[in-house]
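#struct-help
A.M.: can someone run this one for me? Single chain, 335 residues.
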Amino acid sequence: MLRPILLCASLCASTSALAGAANPSAAEQAAILAPSLFGDIQVQALMQEHSMSEFDAKEANLGLKGGGQLPHFYLGYNLMAQYSNNLDDIEVRNAYAFLTAAPGTLFVGKSDSGSYQDVYSHVDIHPNLNAHGTGKQAPLHEQGKWADNTLGYASPWWHSGAGDLQLKTSVTPMESKSGNHGDVWMGRINYRYDNIEAVLNYLNMAGDIGDQDETYHRTAMTLRGQFDAVKLVALAELTNNSFSHAQNTYVASASYQQDRWLWGISHQYKTFEDEQRFPALGLTIASVRYQYWQDLSFYVEGAVYSDDPADYVDFSQDRFAHAGNSLALGMLFSF
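D.P.: on it. Structure tokens below:
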């Protein structure tokens, strides 16, 4: 299945801080750009409808990152490989560089998509059933997490008494399973004021990518607010000529931080073009996470679909092939 996972990663450092930075010496530049190691591993026991119970490493990531101030700009880079329980081999997920100067940030490479980072990650609050693509199950929205071969630009944040504004754009070449080529274009507006943030994201995918005549349009809007320990998020994803015949998806999530405990609940609601044959599908997820150490946490998560997602497999290009009601218990460790 062609996964529409796109766009400029949201990696922009503050350009105002760069303007006054001193130019480092050659030795200081080498030290600044030297890589640091990072990674994480997720292990869980999963009990899922239509599948045997399993206990394994759901996902493991290992990478190198670095960056620093050079004479006229900031240069950063990131390399990361990933292993998961449903991939045949190790995947290179991050291989990108970004350059930030007064006019903004230029990004090139593969990484988390900017659409995911700025829009969808805020409702992707659960450790098992998420958009990462490594847990076999799939969320209802069309946007995935990863993007390849992206060239993107992000403006600086413009500040005013009415709030802060930032613009982003990118292009991502893609190829379908049949060998058709095309480009995916993105435009995004980020806005924030006090504890409220809003994003408007638009994608345009040429029709030959999906082996169809019509161009695929997707508009996503999100509104989120942080109120002390409570975070509330609402998202609407509106599609036209979707490759998987989807129509619209609506997501609402709420999370609450209490000392070392993080409580989260979300609901997703998806509609399809053929409403008579494929009625709307709902998905409710609840999770509790306990931060045992700074880098070690444990979680419990349950997910329930309103209908059997197996009935939607053929219609949606297999995106629900492994989905089903589930209960997961797991551990997350990072360094």
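A.M.: thanks! The domain at 60-334 is CATH 2.40.160.10 (Porin).
D.P.: also worth noting: Confidence is low (pLDDT under 50) at residues 1-22.
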